[in-house]
Amino acid sequence: MTPTFTLHRGDSLTVLQSLPDHSVDAVIADPPYNSGGRTGNERRSTSARGKYVSGDAQHDLPDFAGDNRDQRAYLVWLSLILIECLRITRPGGHLLVFSDWRQAPVTADALQVGGWLWQGTVVWHKPVSRPMRGGFKAAAEYIQWGSNGPFDRTPELYLPGVFSASQPSGRQRRHITQKPVDGLLAELVKVCPEGGTVLDPFAGSGSTGVAAVSSGRHFVGIELTEHYHQVAHDRLTDAQRSVAR
Fold first, then answer.
1. pLDDT at position 49 over 60
2. 63 pLDDT higher than 70
């Protein structure tokens, strides 16, 4: 059967409240990090482009909303999101939530406030990343891993704890903070059984959905920004057609 996808446009928390209990098998979430900047004021007043796009970037991708919360607001907001995700996910299902180094601690807190069992932290190594004068290169982001209660350990699935993959470039770059399908998302979706359903509350340009649909999994996504919602819809349609051939 050709995998299906549903892509909602709207606020994640509002849309999640409309989804039925235990209707997905895994959640892979890449929320706005609400990070960057040296001070809280800089994080709240600078656009996503200003925080996450270097001055020499060769693209003019649109900004996205929801990236100006302070730390306390981010914890409350993400906790509410993950509470809804827990309700929607079947018992034993997995949760993977991206963060940078600044937000790794509060993301792990939100996961546990949301009722998930924290299973650990996965590392995404970025071969192309920003150097730090006099210090260490910011060459990694992090994925907090949780489960809805105990999970099934019987499948023959062994995934690494560190992934190394570069963000898409050139014409393949469709979003400011786009994650790579090859080498990262195509592996992460394996926590969802084949034929199951992956939920992404922050679909962006649809990369998680492309990885899911391309591997025989169904997908439910939510995206607030109109431009990126259309980009995600087009990419998901192309992925579905490729699988159906």
1. no
2. no
Indicate left, alpha or beta for 112 from its phi (over 0: left) and psi (-120 to 50: alpha).
alpha
Helix, strand, coil percent content, the chain, rounded in steps of 5 = 35, 25, 40
CA–CA separation, 53 and 35 (whole Å): 13
pLDDT confidence bin for 1, thresholds 50/70/90: confident
Comparing CA positions, the residue from 5, 35, 52 lying closest to residue 203 is 5
175 token code pair:
């979003």
What's the rounded Cα separation, in Å, for the pair 116 and 158? Answer: 21
What DSSP string describes 87-124? HHEEEEEEEEEEE-TTTHHHHHHHHHHTTPEEEEEEEE
CATH no. for residue 227? 3.40.50.150
**Pair 144, 118: CB distance under 8 Å:** yes
The full DSSP string for 198-235 is EEESS-TTSHHHHHHHHTT-EEEEEE-SHHHHHHHHHH
Say how many domains are in the chain: 1
Model confidence at 178, pLDDT cuts 50, 70, 90, reads confident
Residue ranges in 46-183 assigned as alpha helix (H) = 48-52, 71-88, 104-113
Domain span at residue 73 reads: 5-244
Number of CB atoms found within 10 A of residue 33's CB: 22
